[in-house]
Structures are given as structure tokens and as C-alpha cells.
């Protein structure tokens, strides 16, 4: 499906074009990922910089903060939050499944016209600006 000039990411979801509640764009997402992965990398130094420790710590950061703060520390620093499409709490299982798919990487780089990654589509969430 191609996107015409009259549409914008999030329009089909009923989200505004820009500002609070609009889709979190790629720059913010990449910045948030660097913050979260960087934190996991630094914390893993206590465990000898083991690559599996980095991924495990990254996963713990995601799973702990998504349901409690509505976003990871990186998301929050870049002015974004994770929300369900119906606006209710993301719960506990969605962050676990979303994080597992994010760690696999491929689902996170497959996007739809609303710039939602497959990892968000699977669990019914969207990363929006706060």
C-alpha cells in the first residue's frame, strides 16, 4: 500500500499528524534504542561485557519499564510512550512479547504505513509522542 500526500503515519489509527499523541518517528526511536542499549552495555560491564548479558539487561530494562512508566528510559527521554491502540494499560505480557521480538531485530525493522514495527503490531501497541 502506498501512502498519498494527504495521509500521514498514524492517520488510519486516528492519531494526530504531529505533537502529543502522534506517531514516534524514526529519529526518536533510534535515539531511545541507543540510550537503552547503551545503558545495558554499561551495566553489563559488571559482568565482563558478555554479549548475552547485554541482551538480557536490555530485555530487563524493556520489560520492567514498559508497563510501569509507559516506556523505556530511552523512550521517556525522547518524549515517547508506549500505548495500546484502545488507550488502556499495556499489561504485563505485551512488553515481554514485544521485547522478545525486538531482540530478534527483524520484526522491529518491518514497518507498515503507520511506521509501526511488526513487534508493535503483534501485541497491539503503538509508540507515540507524549
UniProtKB/TrEMBL annotation:
Primary residence: membrane
InterPro entries tied to this protein: Pra-immunoreactive, RDD, UCP021697
Organism superkingdom: Bacteria
Keyword list, A-Z: Cell membrane, Membrane, Transmembrane, Transmembrane helix
Residue span, RDD domain: 51-123
Subcellular location: Cell membrane
Transmembrane segments: 53-71, 92-111
Species lineage: Bacteria, Bacillati, Actinomycetota, Actinomycetes, Micrococcales
Protein name: RDD family protein
UniProt-listed PANTHER family: PROLINE-RICH ANTIGEN HOMOLOG, PROLINE-RICH ANTIGEN HOMOLOG-RELATED
Annotated Pfam families: RDD (PF06271)
Membrane topology category: Multi-pass membrane protein
Amino acid at each position: 500500500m502506498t501512502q498519498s500526500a494527504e495521509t500521514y503515519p498514524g492517520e488510519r489509527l486516528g492519531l494526530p499528524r504531529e505533537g502529543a499523541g502522534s506517531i514516534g518517528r524514526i529519529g526518536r526511536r533510534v535515539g531511545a534504542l541507543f540510550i537503552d542499549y547503551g545503558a545495558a552495555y554499561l551495566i553489563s560491564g559488571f559482568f565482563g561485557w558478555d554479549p548475552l548479558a547485554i541482551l538480557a539487561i536490555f530485555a530487563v530494562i524493556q520489560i520492567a519499564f514498559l508497563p510501569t512508566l509507559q516506556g523505556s528510559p530511552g523512550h521517556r527521554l525522547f518524549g515517547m510512550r508506549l500505548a495500546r491502540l484502545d488507550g488502556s494499560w499495556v499489561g504485563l505480557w505485551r512488553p515481554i512479547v514485544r521485547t522478545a521480538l525486538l531482540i530478534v531485530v527483524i520484526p522491529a525493522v518491518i514497518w507498515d504505513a503507520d511506521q509501526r514495527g511488526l513487534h508493535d503490531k503483534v501485541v497491539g501497541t503503538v509508540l507515540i509522542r507524549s
